[in-house]
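Example for tutorial group B:
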């Protein structure tokens, strides 16, 4: 099934009422009330956005956010009665795209969700079309020997096929993974900031920067010997990324 929004809240009444309200206004939504139910739902269904509470019984929404960011790519909006600066900063720093305090107006919440979804879906459509546009623009990609952007002696990025070649084995990169890696390689030796990647590599500054670690992780899975201890694509915490 395809849904625009998944509401994750251990308060069943709030979760059910929110999903019902969204569905009334033609925004397909479902709800779950626990950490495990959320992961199962995301594995079985396509979801464009997650509304996530911090308190999930014996588990934490912060923990779930980190898990989602490692495996999925969608906006995450926190909804919580907790209003401390520490909670808000934690939510945003681990990958949340916004933080909405309870109690909230259903109409305003719906408007925020629709606005984020609109930006996200436009960006995804643009990213999907990037490869085709570059191939149509004759000068957009190098050719021949210049198509190989070497990362090390036995690893290079082939810009003619958008594939990463490591020890002779080819691995396909998705649109944003390719754009992100190529841009950092073109700026090798300096820190590429998060804002710069969003504006220059993806050409959409409205996508939450929390999506960047997801793509960095996916690139490392294909690039590094040990993705948990990267030697090539390094994170400069709070700033951005660098390939030295």
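The residue assignment follows.
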């Amino acid at each position: 099934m395809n849904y625009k929004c998944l509401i994750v809240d251990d308060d069943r009444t709030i979760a059910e009422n929110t999903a019902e309200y969204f569905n009334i206004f033609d925004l397909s939504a479902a709800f779950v009330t626990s950490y495990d139910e959320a992961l199962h739902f995301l594995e079985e269904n396509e979801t464009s956005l997650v509304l996530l509470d911090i308190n999930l019984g014996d588990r934490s929404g912060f923990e779930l956010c980190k898990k989602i960011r490692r495996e999925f790519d969608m906006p995450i909006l926190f909804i919580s009665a907790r209003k401390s600066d520490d909670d808000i900063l934690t939510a945003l720093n681990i990958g949340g795209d916004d933080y909405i305090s309870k109690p909230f107006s259903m109409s305003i919440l719906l408007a925020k969700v629709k606005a984020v979804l609109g930006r996200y879906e436009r960006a995804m459509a643009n990213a999907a079309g990037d490869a085709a546009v570059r191939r149509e623009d004759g000068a957009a990609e190098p050719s021949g020997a210049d198509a190989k952007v070497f990362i090390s002696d036995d690893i290079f990025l082939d810009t003619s096929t958008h594939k990463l070649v490591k020890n002779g084995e080819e691995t396909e990169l998705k649109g944003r993974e390719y754009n992100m890696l190529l841009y950092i390689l073109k700026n090798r030796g300096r820190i590429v900031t998060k804002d710069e990647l969003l504006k220059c590599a993806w050409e959409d500054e409205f996508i939450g920067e929390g999506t960047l670690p997801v793509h960095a992780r996916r690139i490392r899975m294909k690039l590094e010997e040990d993705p948990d201890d990267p030697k090539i694509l390094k994170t400069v915490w709070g700033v951005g990324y660098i390939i030295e």
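The CA atoms of residues 194 and 212 lie 8 Å apart. Compare this with the pattern of hydrophobic and polar residues in the output above.
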